[in-house]
Specification:
homodimer, 212 residues, alpha/beta, TIM Barrel, 8-stranded parallel beta barrel, 43% helix
Chain lengths: 212, 212
Amino acid sequence: MRDWDVYLITGQELSRGRTTPQVVEAALRAGVRVVQLREKDMSTRELLTLGQTVRALTRRFGAELIVNDRVDVALAIGADGVHVGQADMPLPYVRRCLPAHMYVGVSVSNGEQVGVAEQAGADYLGVGPIFPTGSKSDTDPVLGLDGLRAIRAQTSLPIVAVGGITIINAQDVIQAGADCVSVISALTAADDIIAAAEALLHKVRQAQRRMK
Amino acid sequence: MRDWDVYLITGQELSRGRTTPQVVEAALRAGVRVVQLREKDMSTRELLTLGQTVRALTRRFGAELIVNDRVDVALAIGADGVHVGQADMPLPYVRRCLPAHMYVGVSVSNGEQVGVAEQAGADYLGVGPIFPTGSKSDTDPVLGLDGLRAIRAQTSLPIVAVGGITIINAQDVIQAGADCVSVISALTAADDIIAAAEALLHKVRQAQRRMK
């Protein structure tokens, strides 16, 4: 969790025909330092094979790799951590399956969930949706920047903001208290992924420096 | 894997409106001693919650519990083992995630897969489909009793036969070399699950005694 700024979440179906390894490699080349593997409708073996490829890429670029939901796949490919949502395995069970050096992020969308995640020992929070988004089938109400500020006031855990974040609003999100922004389609669906990632990283790092 | 005879595979969608815990409890009451939790289209949390219920039931009746595919869920609920198919995590990765006392079964449908599974240290083989079946979306060719005999001649690992097994053909399957028969709809979709399980257990145990 060192130096996170832009946190790429993968999504083959949102990558306009490019493969997830192609998208990830472009983002890593631009300087992205953390990737969450999040793919739907794959068999365990397909996810494992893809995970091994993405693990090798992230290693090559010195970036961290988080696996969404699948604790078993994270263990099998030697990921740095696991990210769980409210419909995934509760954190105490995740911890029981993982070695101590792997960390766990939890998706939260309200203050109650923040409290539960903090109590259970989450290493970071995925907070959102900040803005409306088409990438995830979220039914949780949009938090907005005010909702993000309220959660920031509640917790000292690192916050990865998620949902509808683009180069236009990324600085506002950092200013509202997020430590890092996560994106899916802002990168996976960009015409030029490297250029889009470089521009987004620049904006986020600029805002992070201002917050120090 | 002690004393397996009838191996129940669960399937909420094949249970004619009864819940998986209801189906499992009826089968356990009849004397079934091993259950594989195999459910589709559930979130990890739903599967975990269901798994905990089924784990409590199997413990109460002194039966064993295997989880299909999901190594993480098996770990989290303290199952006795994991069953993996050819599209699931390969056995060497599964072993790496599991403590030594948990065992691993592998689905095989031809001699080559038997060799790979045996080499990798499978504890038992799920061999099939023996007969045509509507329960699983298998595309593998039907083995028939001759195919089962050929695999029996190839390996000394315990064989759990799978696919289209009913009270009518269960004895033939044991005579062809299976150690145990697995069923989904023959029990989950039975009018009277307890009566169907008792009748099937009787047939299978009779055939097992004849094979000794």
